[in-house]
Amino acid sequence: MTTLSLDSHSVENVDEESVIVDNHVLTGDDFSIDDDMSSFVRLVEKYSTTANLPSSHWLTILKLQHTRTDVRCLSEATRIMKRLMDIVISAVMLVLLAPVMLLVMLLVKLTSPGPVIYSQIRVGLNLRRPNRDRRDSRGHDSVPSNRREKANDRRLDNGFGKPFVLYKFRTMRIDAEKNGAQLAVKGDPRITPIGRLLRKTRIDELPQLWNVLKGEMSLVGPRPERPVFIEQLSQEIPDYINRLGLKPGLTGLAQIINGYDTDIDSIRRKVALDLLYLQNCCIKNDLKILFRTIRVILTGSGAM
């Protein structure tokens, strides 16, 4: 079992608003702010006990007075700056990278049959609060069971969050899911030769700049997931849905540290890292993640 703690040598005071922590996850005993923060720390610890989290010592840890649950907990200034950065950078990149994207489209078309652009429904921002049992003073449900069942059905129908159409360059054969949806694995034979290169360099993600410009995604945030996987993972990993409190991102803390999802342990690490980012979402950290994404692209780290 991994113990995540803070010692006196792992903190460097930066300013009144933040500190940099080598052991990036703190234990409940190290925080005395409020019960919510301790609950968040215990939640992260619960996921990280199955496998060590990769180091993120460079991440700026914010001194929060209250635990963040979703994007509404960010300051107005942070929300505005984050959106402005999304618009400006995505628009500029779409223009500058247009020749690269046209070349990729040509290569995909020439090397395998099927569409060049692959579109897929993904789950985005989730602003629902965790459900709590509503009972009257006599201990009975105050909401009729049929109403609760209908509410649950609606929640499943829209995939636990706001659905949107995500765009990517196609990297797999057109019959890749003839046996149903499944996670990609290392050396996956369904991936085309050119697709392997696109995945290694993350170039297959470039069409998502359009999703960012439209406001469906952000440059930095949790990786968007497919509805079928959301339902399955929510059953296997408690509180999985909590990672969707921010707009999904083209890149993010989990994407650059954890890489692609290959098994349940890697998904647990992703949940922990997404929750960590939610608590420390700020423009400074977004810029750090964007610059580190460039290194991931150049080295092919975490590729299939």
Task: Tell me what you see in this structure.
The protein is globular. A hairpin with a 4-residue loop joins strand 1 and strand 2. It has helices at residues 35-48, 76-96, 98-111, 145-157, 193-201, 208-214, 227-236, 253-258, 264-279, 283-299; strands at residues 11-13, 18-21, 60-62, 117-123, 163-169, 218-220, 249-251. 42% of the residues lie in helices and 10% in strands. Strands 1-2-3 form a three-stranded antiparallel β-sheet, with no helix packed on it. The chain has a two-stranded antiparallel ribbon with strand order 4-5. The chain has one domain (11-299). The protein is mainly alpha-helical. The longest helix has 21 residues, at 76-96.
How would you briefly describe this protein structure?
This protein has 304 residues and is mainly alpha-helical. Helix content is 42%, strand content 10%.
